[in-house]
Amino acid sequence: MSESEARPTNFIRQIIDKDLAGGVHTTVHTRFPPEPNGYLHIGHAKSICLNFGIAKDYQGQCNLRFDDTNPEKEDIEFVESIKSDVNWLGFDWSGEVCYSSGYFDRLHGYAVELIEKGLAYVEELSPDEIREYRGTLTAPGKHSPYRDRTVEENLALFDKMKNGEFAEGKACLRAKIDMASPFMVMRDPVLYRVRFAHHHQTGDKWCIYPMYDFTHCISDAIEGITHSLCTLEFQDNRRLYDWVLDNITIECQPRQYEFSRLNLEYTVMSKRKLSQLVSENLVNGWDDPRMPTISGLRRRGYTPAAIREFCKRIGVTKQENTIEMSSLESCIRDDLNENAPRAMAVLDPIKLVIENFDGDIEHLSAPNHPNKPEMGERSIPFSREIWIEAEDFREEANKKYKRLVLGKEVRLRNAYFVKAERCDKDADGKVTTVYCTYDPETLGKDPADGRKAKGVIHWVSADAGVPAEIRLYDRLFTLPNPGAADDFAATINPESLTVVQGYVEPSLKAAVAEQGYQFERMGYFCVDRKDSTDDALVFNRTVGLRDTWAKIDG
Ligand code: ATP
Ligand code: MG
């Protein structure tokens, strides 16, 4: 296995070690809290590996909690996909799946408690006015005329909100904190708003929904979370997180710690943007193999082990940075180099006729892995007509070209020496057929007279090979940071997908979904689990054999 065994160390694990050593906690309880408004992406994998990885290594617990307070943007399809992606990555949550919406009654109770303590009030300024009153980073905000209502009045109005007597935007509940705070989140943040929206878990029970900052800390406390790990953009919100928990009657005091988000070059990582790519049909769904989603990477042929290894290699810090795509690719390449069975496929076929081969198909045998005899051998049919890669033949070439040239010999991988004699061309001068002779004495051994082959090329029997559609992928965007472009969708790489019709060796008819294969000399491929049928094979190229990114950039 290419996944390294060593336990990671990072500043969060150091905090946990200290908390356990100092008796602050006796066990560790984390959570992964996605909002079900899209499919998970590789950035979420970082958070999943961190949260579930800590629970595993410290024999603690990690909850899966849907942070579902925005019913209009959420959907049960996303709930299901997230559960399945977390499992596929190799993690399982403690107990039942949790939902913030499962705490709506208690959250409502805590809001009432804040009102009763004079720490929350019903606001009737419009959303625009609220923004205007909030002030700026350099100017303090000013008090709303509704800020000093009595507790009784606030309780009655909050009840009216709950009963649907205010239209959306006509009232909201705000915390009464400090309109002059240097932290904008502390300037009387909104805790509840009116939304007449059907919720995927609670149906039509509620028409008021709690805001993230109010919901998240209380959900953490209800679940007994010890270390609440989130990304750096929530650093300021930590003040509000602590304020809410300090001002309500609740046992547990979880602590929030922030780490930097994963950013990857040449892709976008925000669900809003990914969702736009899907809804505008700029890609073929959330699991398009070009997408940085877990389901896209999975369909592309990434393994859970490779993604976990990637998360281990990038580590967890507070440093903002952007990771090169080649780092992700080297993880899957390392995994597949070790674990993928070898096979032969021709992606841009021309015919090679072996004129001195008579008889039917000959069954040759080839190892499934050059360094792993335990992976066994397979039978490969060899015949008078075979397919070779168009780029593997030239009528003439210099010494650097280690492939088939007229009058010269190459070895056919796992088979014989062949010598090119002549070729046919079409009207455009493109070679269509190469005629050659083979040396039957060269199977598995060099010729006795010391002749050397110029190189080794791969091939597929034209009689027994199987036609296949093969999808080749390139970076999805032309810019390293497409998210920063005015119109990121306009920076999509028009060559991000190339479809070719090739031939694969017949053993690949039995190719298993999610099993990576090395097509010799061409890269790592897997069967497309959605579009492949028994009669029409479709393969995705997961990654090339070598890193070509540096070359493209340089
Ligand atoms: P997005 O911007 O993609 O919508 P989000 O933070 O709104 O991301 P959530 O569903 O709220 O998405 O995220 C669930 C968890 O995953 C959060 O704890 C969040 O901090 C973490 N997370 C999201 N994106 C990344 C990322 N790029 N790197 C690391 N962690 C991330
Ligand atoms: Mg979010």
Automatic annotation (TrEMBL):
Short motif 'HIGH' region, span: 34-44
Glutamyl/glutaminyl-tRNA synthetase class Ib catalytic domain span: 28-337
Domain tRNA synthetases class I (E and Q) anti-codon binding, chain residue ranges per copy: 456-528
Binding site for L-glutamine: D67, Y212
Limits of the Glutamyl/glutaminyl-tRNA synthetase class Ib anti-codon binding domain: 340-439
CDD domains: GlnRS_core
Family annotation (InterPro entries): aa-tRNA-synth_I_CS, Gln-tRNA-synth, Gln/Glu-tRNA_Ligase, Gln_tRNA_ligase_bac, Glu/Gln-tRNA-synth, Glu/Gln-tRNA-synth_Ib_cat-dom, Glu/Gln-tRNA-synth_Ib_codon-bd, Rbsml_bL25/Gln-tRNA_synth_N
EC numbers on record: 6.1.1.18
Catalytic activity: tRNA(Gln) + L-glutamine + ATP = L-glutaminyl-tRNA(Gln) + AMP + diphosphate
Gene Ontology MF term list: glutamine-tRNA ligase activity
Location of the motif 'KMSKS' region: 268-272
PROSITE patterns: AA_TRNA_LIGASE_I
Sites where the protein binds ATP: 35-37, 41-47, 231, 261-262, 269-271
Keyword RNA-binding applies: no
Pfam families named in the record: tRNA-synt_1c, tRNA-synt_1c_C, tRNA-synt_1c_C2
Source taxon at top rank: Bacteria
Record localization: Cytoplasm
Top EC group: ligase
Database matches in SUPFAM superfamilies: Nucleotidylyl transferase, Ribosomal protein L25-like
Family designation: Belongs to the class-I aminoacyl-tRNA synthetase family.
Subunit structure: Monomer.
Protein name: Glutamine--tRNA ligase
